[in-house]
Amino acid sequence: MSATKHENLSVPQLDPYFYVSRDLADIFEKIHLLSRKKPVNVLISGRQGCGKSSLVKQYAAIYQRPLSTFQVGILSEPSQLFGEYALEAGETKYKQFLFPEAIQTPNSVIHLEEINRPEHPKALNMLFSLLSDSRDVWLEELGHLKVADGVVFFATLNEGEDFVGTELLDAALRDRFYFLLMDYLPNEVEKEVLIKKTGVTAAQADDIMLRSTSCGGTPRCGSMYPHGRP
Ligand SMILES: Nc1ncnc2c1ncn2[C@@H]1O[C@H](COP(=O)(O)OP(=O)(O)OP(=O)(O)O)[C@@H](O)[C@H]1O
Ligand SMILES: [Mg+2]
Question: What protein residues have CB closer than 5 angstroms to ion ligand 2?
């Protein structure tokens, strides 16, 4: 599917320069504790490049959980995440993808990218039941699949000029998530991260940031609220 196996289902490396605010650290801890008791799905929304994917990765790194990432944006039919029929030595055989293995791996973190943009709206159908409290799904080829204990689903979506937050998400899907809204790092934090990560001087960092159009957002990272959940 989206990435090769060696990149997936392994615990990612901690980024020593990744900035986590106090609020965000608290949210991480809440997600972690909650996920030991009940199914947790978190939807992260924010503009392009504000750090959504890195956040999911760092969550997995901090809590030492295997991470796997899947592109929902390229799905054109519901079962496509799970596997496909392929011709092998003149015979048509069903080949299972990584997704079924990932959801059955206890405590794993599953990142569903661009959940608001599948190529076909029905592509999300099977995810609905996996993300519900029952956390299972039935496929003709694989039978009954149950999500393992402690698995956390993170879905990310890009806010565009024309839409914000979860507006474009199907209501049924939206209700299954806690919602985390992100924005770009505050300027002074971004500057510090830039200096630490690249070794540029403070003056050079100022210059880079002046040229960049991506700075200056109001920091709002750190708010998490349930959508349709008690
Ligand atoms: N809190 C942070 N601390 C340090 N670096 C960060 C932080 N957030 C984002 N970055 C850096 O910003 C860059 C973009 O982050 P990332 O790819 O995670 O954004 P994204 O929101 O997933 O982007 P896209 O919308 O393209 O999917 C990465 O190089 C990442 O390391
Ligand atoms: Mg991303």
Answer: 52-53
